[in-house]
Amino acid sequence: MGINGPAPIAPRAHAMVRRLGVLLHKARNGYLVARLETDKPPPLGVKVYDSSLQEIGVLLDVIGPVEQPYAVIKPNERGEKLDKKGVTLYYEPPRPRRPRRRRGRGAGRRPRQGRGRPTPPPRQGRGAGRRRKPVRQRGRRK
Question: Which of 6, 59, 60, 85 maximizes the CB count within 10 A of its CB?
Answer without folding.
Answer: 59
